[in-house]
Predict the structure.
Amino acid sequence: MNFLHDLTVKTFRDGLLNKKFSAFEIVKEFFDYIEDKDKEINAFLSLSKDTALRRASRVDVALAEGKDLGVLAGVPLAIKDNMLIEGESVTAASKILENYIASYDATVIAKLKEAGAVFLGKTNMDEFAMGSSTENSAYKKTRNPHDLERVPGGSSGGSAAAVAAHMAVAALGSDTGGSIREPASFCGVVGLKPTYGVVSRYGLIAMASSLDQIGPLTKTVEDAAILFKEIAGNDEFDSTSANPPGGAYGNELLNPKLEDIKKLTVGIPEEYFVAGLSKKVENGVQKAMDLLRGLDLNFKKISLPHTKYALSCYYIIMPAEVSSNLARFDGVRYSRKYDADKLLDIYLKNRGRGFGEESRRRIMLGTFVLSSGYYDAYYAKAQKVRRLIKEDFDKAFDRTAGGVDVILTPVVPTPAFKIGEKTEDPLAMYLSDVLTIPVNLAGLPAISIPVHGMYKNGSYAPEKSLPVGFQLIGKPWREADILGIGQFYERL
Amino acid sequence: MITKKEIKHLADLARIELTEKEEGELVRDLGKILGHFTELNRIDTSNVAPLTGGTSLSGVFRDDEPERTSDTGKGKEQFPESFGGFLKVPKVFE
């Protein structure tokens, strides 16, 4: 199985074009492997073997006929189960959508299809992307491939685990408060949360619309850049989507130049290195910084003073948006699990029994902070604090005032925790997101990259050592900076 | 911080049916979470404008030309109940 272990988006394409293998062979091999391996990992909620093999064959035929192949021709991907693929089941890991079949392609799916990608299946997640461990799935518990007693992180835990366990070459996830970066850090893979608005959310089941963003989970930073370039861009079906100022992303994403990277200044915010940070994470981030010094990057201490308020701010704004977005699941329009004679009873039963505990908790919290008498004290206050958090970043990035280009921080305060460790205490679970949330509130791009030496080339860590990631945060639209540093880091 | 009566009222607003046990758990959990939020009162925001939404984009317009952008018939097959192609709901008024 070592062969699948070594496959990246890049090496897959090289192998395919050099006729080392056919797309059909590889896709078939992935399904054989998943059948065995996913019994212990539980990363997938559904598989689409027939469609995937058919699409792979088409790639092989096109190649034999000498046709131009898309950038992702035949690449086997896993997709988080909150993105719509026409004709396929989409549950958001909720009972309330148990029987729902998507009637159209999400924009990211349409773009990936256009590029020739093959979808192996849909991955497990926290219900409606609400959670940090994938334990809130209504269907199954996904295990961390590095230690089966531990969580893969969440909410994109299935996607991260699938890539870490080599059950897909790469995957898509979504990130509202850290749901791509946290599982990436826990599973030892790369996870990119792009600038707010750069990837269309049309066909993504909405959680908190002012924060949600789709991004790739991959084995290498190079792969993250390739996938990101394919899914980015303005879409008329998502009015918050936009191209970067100056037009579409250019070649600097894929071919960063060392002389450009060397000019960048990296900020280290003191507020991210506080009590509660585990020794292992602190050492890991230190190790990453030491290696990066080898690139001649400048480092500078900075301050983001409102960081500690981000968690409270987020857990007011996000549930408020959740309570509104999830109002559409009423047992009438999408699917009905519990029948009743009266309309009100259909609502009450389907929402009461169809939503899991965490979804109910957040809908209730959101309803509370938006309700008359509490709105100003909670929701309006949080929106003001959100501005202060964003202004911290604006100041830190202001070059005219001696600011920096990129900010380096830990991703999560700890490595992956044990299954069941935090399920009884919602607040303890929320604290897993404390270092990833500010980025979403400010709409910035950020990437989680595995620290070298903690794992080897995406394969299982020796001696049960758990992976740890470090986070690079960029200016809006400057994915090229964080992907650039990342690509040089992984060559060190 | 939050009472059982308030939880019942919120559940009614959110159209969520809860058991007695779930109501009790929500009193406990939301109380604890809302308690954490009080830290925000330490920040002076009297001169701060709220930041609404995740983007500073505004006024995104397109030409006012009719166009057929998607198949409006799609999705109907997913209706839990339908009548003549329309979504069917139980009667709202007694």
User: Anything to note?
Assistant: The domain at 2-261 of chain A is CATH 3.90.1300.10 (Amidase signature (AS) enzymes). Chain A touches chain B through 68 residues (CB under 8 Å). Chain A has 17 helices and eleven strands. Residues 376-396 of chain A form the longest helix (21 residues).
